[in-house]
Amino acid sequence: MKKSIDHSRKIPGLDFTYDDEFYPNDNELADPQKDPILVGARVPIQKVGIGPVDLPVVLARRDGGSQILHAKASLYGSLDNPDAKGLNLSRFYLLMHEKIADRLSMKGLKDILREMTLSQNCEHAYCKLRFSYPWFQEALRTHEELSEDDLPFERDWYIENEDCEVFKVVKDKVLSHDKKRGHIFYDCELEGQVHNGEYKFYLTVDYYYSSTCPCSFELSQDATERRGKAANAHSQRSIAKIKVQFNPDNPVWIEDVVELAREYVPTEVQVVVKRRDEQAFAELNGANLIFTEDAARLLYEGLDQWYATGVIQDFCIVTQHFESLHPWDAIAVLYKEVDGGLT
After folding, report:
1. Percentage with pLDDT > 90 across the chain
2. 263 vs 218, 250, 268, CA distance in Å?
3. Which of 20, 77, 212, 239 could staple 122 via S-S, CB 3.0–4.6 A?
4. What contacts 41, CB < 8 A, 6 or more positions away?
């Protein structure tokens, strides 16, 4: 180690050199947790913990692959003994690093919670990881154009045989049936908690979509049809926070939640956009006029089918439309209202 600056002339009697060979035993160091002096009221504390902690994690994908992610993790435990000074917070980071860093799994998450109840004597423990999950999104209309190297026959053959099953031909271009794709990221939260021996696990996925106001659409159409005025319905970027409780032995895939949202609220914001896609998006919004209450109820319909078939154990939905008409948002909150469930 590089030699440190000598400040001994300022404060005589102190050694200002760092000793990197010194290694004390734990019992040789002061332990503030054992200090008999406890300040403030002698009451239990519901949550004591650390966060957000940066952790590299590897998450299994639905397609059998894996995804490297940068997660923000938080870990809390209950301080149930009113006479205890605190919890061993230095152990919290080590516990998460040992159990889920580089290999995130439901077993690892459950092991963290179990260890909190055993080593920290917590009746309640809670762990949350926040991360952005990338997945592919297809363009609404734009297809991949095939190059000459991709074509087993001359290009003119495909132009003359437009009914062939393998390719589409549009304006003398031979197109693949595959649409152009791009990456879109979904903000997610994975949560686990244990309370008096009962474990619960949750997944939250943020789904961004466009909402066109049905009222504004009718008013703009009225202005155009009756008075010949150019008018546009107001629309805005919107978000649905979809939270589901699941069985850790049968986890819900992030991709499944996204596909459900795309089915019931199809106006998802787009990443690959050419003019034909922008026009398609305008038509898609026109075909799916939606209030914030509508979005919540539509998503409820899909999630309730999952609940009825045992795919999930509980769910809640928060839809928020970032209004372009108002300086405030339009918000709907909808719960399944399971006994003892999410509120």
Report:
1. 76
2. 25, 22, 10
3. 77
4. none
